[in-house]
UniProtKB/TrEMBL annotation:
PANTHER family: INOSITOL MONOPHOSPHATASE, INOSITOL-1-MONOPHOSPHATASE-RELATED
This protein's name: 3'(2'),5'-bisphosphate nucleotidase CysQ
Keyword Magnesium: yes
InterPro entries: Inositol_monophosphatase-like (IPR000760), Inositol_monophosphatase_CS (IPR020550)
Superkingdom of the organism of origin: Bacteria
UniProt keyword annotation of Magnesium present: yes
Cofactor dependence: Mg(2+)
Length: 253
């Protein structure tokens, strides 16, 4: 029986996690990418393994990863792997558990399978366009509330909100965007907001996981997200419960 895309990427995420943990808390080599922040030897090792494993299994798929030089080749494919080898590299370097491996399959511009794995917590979030969202095999669902948001402090500055008044949501933070999206899907928080241009590899997997858990994901204008763009960035991201999404969009400039 052929392996599904979801099975393929969940297995790959766990194997990637095993590689990354060998470098964790072991003083990995670190470089600065101009204008993009740090990258470690763990990021590069995970990226290479995932590229080899996934494209061997699906040689006709395109490839978009934070740690691989992008080319136009993926634009001529129907399906693409969209990968962040380690989302939350700063957290990884600092010894925090809140970093993740994020893998999505995008089909005709829409995520069709997603896996986000937090090795230090052994939490594997997964979803496909045919399944519900799950954490370690258990179905998850968003919260019914509109009380909390995962966002950076500058995101909630008055300049971004009507009458300089952000929504009445208690702010929390996690370094990894992918993990923030999973926490919303799991119902532990009610929304995540980033207003800055956001790379597709940070968002693709988490957007599907939120949607399959019953949430809404859009850019900062309220438009649906489309992936595999020539410039793989999105105009901010809001992932939330329907109630929280409506409140945020009503307040946002």
């Amino acid at each position: 029986m052929p392996v599904t895309d979801l099975d393929l990427i969940t297995n790959a995420a766990r194997k990637a996690g095993a590689i990354a943990t060998r470098f964790f808390d072991a003083d990995p080599k670190v470089w600065e990418k101009p204008g993009q922040g740090p990258v470690t030897e763990a990021d590069l090792a995970v990226d290479k393994m995932l590229n080899d494993m996934l494209l061997t299994a699906r040689p006709d798929y395109g490839w978009l990863s934070e740690e691989t030089a992008d080319t136009d080749a993926r634009l001529n494919t129907t399906h693409q792997f969209v990968v962040d080898p380690i989302d939350g590299t700063r957290a990884f370097i600092e010894g925090s558990k809140d970093w993740a491996i994020s893998i999505a399959v995008v089909s005709n511009g829409i995520p069709s399978a997603a896996a986000i794995y937090l090795p230090m917590r052994d939490n594997l979030y997964a979803a496909s366009h045919k399944t519900t969202a799950a954490l370690n095999g258990r179905d998850i669902i968003i919260s019914p509330n509109c009380k909390t948001v995962l966002a950076t402090r500058p995101t909630m500055d008055g300049q971004h909100w009507k009458n300089e008044t952000p929504p009445n949501l208690k702010r929390h933070f996690r370094s990894s965007l992918a993990y923030r999206m999973c926490l919303v899907a799991e119902g532990r928080y009610d929304a995540m907001v980033t207003l800055r241009p956001s790379w597709e590899w940070d968002i693709a997997a988490g957007s599907l996981i939120i949607e399959r858990a019953g949430g809404i994901v859009s850019d900062r204008t309220g438009a649906s997200l489309a992936f595999n763009s020539a410039m793989p960035q999105l105009n901010g991201v809001i992932g939330a419960t329907p109630k929280a999404h409506a409140e945020i969009m009503d307040r946002l400039i």
